[in-house]
Amino acid sequence: MTVEEALAYLKPDAANNGTISLRASEAREAAGVLERELIRQNAIISDKVSETRLVHMGPRGDGFYIELQDGPVPYLCEYLAQMLGHGSDEPLSNYVEIEVQHHDLGPMTLTLQRRSGLTPHQIAVAAAKEAKQLREQIASTSAGGKDA
Q: Are the CB atoms for 94 and 117 separated by under 8 Å?
C-alpha cells in the first residue's frame, strides 16, 4: 500500500455522510504505511536541520542580524517568497502579515517585507504626508481664489 492509497483508504467517504468504513487489517496496514512515512519525513527534516550553518550573527542598525545557510533555509526562503506571490501570475506583494498563535504569548503578527519596498507603517506615513500636502494645496488655492 502506498502513502496515497493509505490516505485515500482512511479518508471519510462523502457517499456515507463523511463516515469511514474500515477493515481492521487494512486499517492497520494503512496506519503502518503512514507511520513509516512520518518516520521517513522526520529523518529528512532532522538531516536538513543538522546541515544548517550559522554564517554570521550580531547587531545591525537598530536590530539584530542572524545569517544561516544550507539545511532547511532554502526551503524556508522559497516558502516565504511564495507567500509574497513569487511564482504566481499576480504582481509581487511588498509585504505579508502572518498570524501565528504561541502557547504562552498568545496571538502574534509576523510581518514579512521585501527590502526593496516599504513597510506598512512607511506606506501609511507617506500617505498621511501626501494627504496633508494636498489639504494645504487645496486650502491655499481656496484662499487664493477668495482674495481675487
A: yes
Report which of 39, 15, 12, 9 is spatially closest to residue 27, judged by C-alpha positions: 9
Number of domains into which the chain is organized: 3
Range(s) of the domain holding residue 147: 118-148
Euclidean distance between CA atoms 87 and 128, whole angstroms: 33
Cα–Cα distance for residue pair 68/48, rounded to 1 Å: 13
Helices (H), the chain: 3-10, 24-50, 73-83, 120-147
**Residues 24 and 59 both lie in one domain:** no
pLDDT higher than 70, residue 18: no
pTM of the predicted structure, to 2 decimals: 0.43
Same domain, 73 and 124: no
Same domain, 37 and 62: no
